[in-house]
Amino acid sequence: MATIVAPHNFSALEDAEALRKAIQGWGTDEKSIVSILGHRYSYQRKQIRQAYEELYQEDLVKRLESELTGDFEKAVYRWILEPADRDAVLAHVAIKSDNKDVIVEISCIYSPEELLAVRRAYHNRYKRSLEEDVATHTTGDLRKLLVALVSTFRYGGDEINARLANSEADILHDAIKDKKLNHEEVIRILSTRSKSQLLATFNRYRDDHGSSITKHLLGESSDDFHKVLRTAIHCINDPKKYYEKVLRNAIKRVGTDEDALTRVIVTRAEKDLKDIKELYLKRNSVPLEQAVAKDTHGDYKDFLLTLLGKNE
Hints:
Annexin V, domain 1; 20 helices
């Protein structure tokens, strides 16, 4: 469930005028920006951008980029973009900074239609395909796995084949036992099967071999290929649990990982952030809002807390 609270009846024109007032003059009114944009759904933000451009003949996104700074600017920028375009930006930044987790998240958590939309947005924005850039910046088995993941269009339904789950659980177990996780069959299974089918396979694995596949993978190599493989399985197996761990690591590390913190809150605030918050509280005995408030400051903190629904 979403955490943001937005009005169903709103005026894009009035919001555009209020934002213009907030960013004109010598000082920017950051609180107005937070109170407006932090309480608008994606389709509403799109209408505000359109109204602003019609009124003032300039791009609201570019104007906000020029007026805001630091982590606050980055969070607002990523929030105001349309979801697929935002994820294309996140993917591009991740490729350039060698952050493979973001590529795996988009490939393994998003629905087939969402992933396809991101790939189209990436192509439109950067004039190259997402697959092309992933392949350019990786090599060997890691390239095979990541390109397969970003290129996939999985079946999105709930139907499963129990016999197939049983046989492919054995293939995965043999690959782990023989330390051949880079086998083409492992990559094929993880990159082509539907999420429902993979969950059935992972459950079959646990039932047949007495432990989850993720636990068996912990003893494997810690090179990039195996890290990505484990991340992909985590993302497919339990996305909310995965995101909770990303938030926990971002906050508990020495020096907050603002990029990871912003990414999860911005991308999940309209989807399932309420459930992720509940998991965070259960795991850490501290509300996520409290942890975020302690580790951030200023307008950036206020914006994240607004997206978390704290002010409601």
